[in-house]
């Protein structure tokens, strides 16, 4: 039986393969983002163009893979994660200092300035605000808080020894200057290779390194001035411990030792 009796041959052009994503027919679009443009800005532009071009009500959706998917699925949780980390650090410090004022001084005097310094270089175009830079910002909260801890703890001890509040915090800042500079230099030098990393995955390492290095440098520089200022205004006055006299009283009886003749 000839094939023409039940079939018709026709030459057409078809794709070599049909791609699927999340079990749906999909068309993959790949692109390279120029350095000044952040990933979030590029994705927003893509989404705006898709809403304008694709017909509505016909089941077209947009989904992402790789770093773009991480940014869209996890990037929206950054503020909640950051707030949770700040609250957790505050509660831990409150338990250690047995005060709600001292943790407030430490966090307010160091964290906002460090975050501002780290985000400044992101706005200048040296890095982008992506999922990796967000991880660096959350890590920066814990790293930069130790500078305020050193100053506040030592100032409280000086007050308990009889110094007034202003003199205690000035002496604490000058005495703790060397430990702060040493720990900051060690942290910066440890993360500095990430800034100049190259090769596969260099973008993620550059983002984390840039946030940590710039945040630690700027945050540590301003902590030496801002934390003492807030300490003078907010910290409570610690009273010096009263001296305890130790000696023999009149009620004490002398001890006698028998010596054989």
Binned, the helix content reads 55-70%
CATH class of the largest domain: Mainly Alpha
Could you give the distance between the termini? 144 Å
Broad structural category: mainly alpha
Largest sheet: 2 strands, antiparallel
Ranges where pLDDT stays below 50 over 5 or more residues in a row are none
| Element string (H = helix, E = strand) | EEHHHHHHHH
* Rg on CA atoms, Å: 32 Å
Count of β-strands? 2
Strand order of the largest sheet: 1-2
The best one-word shape is elongated
Question: Architecture of the largest domain in CATH?
Answer: Up-down Bundle
Count of helical stretches: 8
CATH homologous superfamily caption of the largest domain: Multidrug efflux transporter AcrB transmembrane domain
Which percent range describes the beta-strand content?
Answer: under 5%
């Amino acid at each position: 039986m000839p094939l023409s009796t039940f079939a018709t041959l026709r030459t057409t052009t078809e794709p070599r393969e049909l791609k699927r994503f999340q079990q749906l027919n999909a068309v993959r679009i790949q692109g390279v983002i120029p350095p000044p443009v952040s990933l979030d800005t590029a994705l927003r532009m893509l989404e705006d163009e898709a809403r304008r071009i694709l017909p509505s009500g016909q089941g077209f959706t947009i989904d992402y893979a790789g770093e773009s998917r991480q940014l869209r699925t996890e990037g929206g949780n950054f503020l909640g994660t950051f707030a949770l980390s700040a609250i957790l650090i505050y509660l831990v410090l409150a338990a250690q200092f047995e005060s709600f004022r001292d943790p407030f001084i430490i966090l307010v005097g160091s964290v906002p300035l460090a975050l501002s310094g780290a985000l400044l270089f992101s706005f200048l175009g040296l890095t982008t605000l992506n999922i990796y830079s967000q991880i660096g910002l959350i890590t920066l909260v814990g790293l930069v808080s130790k500078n305020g801890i050193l100053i506040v703890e030592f100032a409280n001890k000086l007050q308990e020894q009889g110094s007034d509040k202003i003199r205690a915090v000035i002496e604490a800042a000058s005495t703790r200057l060397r430990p702060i500079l040493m720990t900051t230099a060690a942290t910066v030098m440890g993360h500095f290779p990430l800034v100049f990393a190259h090769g596969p995955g260099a973008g993620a390492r550059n983002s984390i390194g840039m946030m940590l290095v710039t945040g630690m440098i700027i945050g540590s520089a301003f902590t030496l001035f801002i934390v003492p200022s807030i300490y003078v205004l907010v910290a409570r006055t610690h009273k010096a411990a009263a001296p305890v006299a130790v000696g023999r009283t009149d009620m004490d009886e002398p001890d006698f030792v028998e010596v054989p003749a």
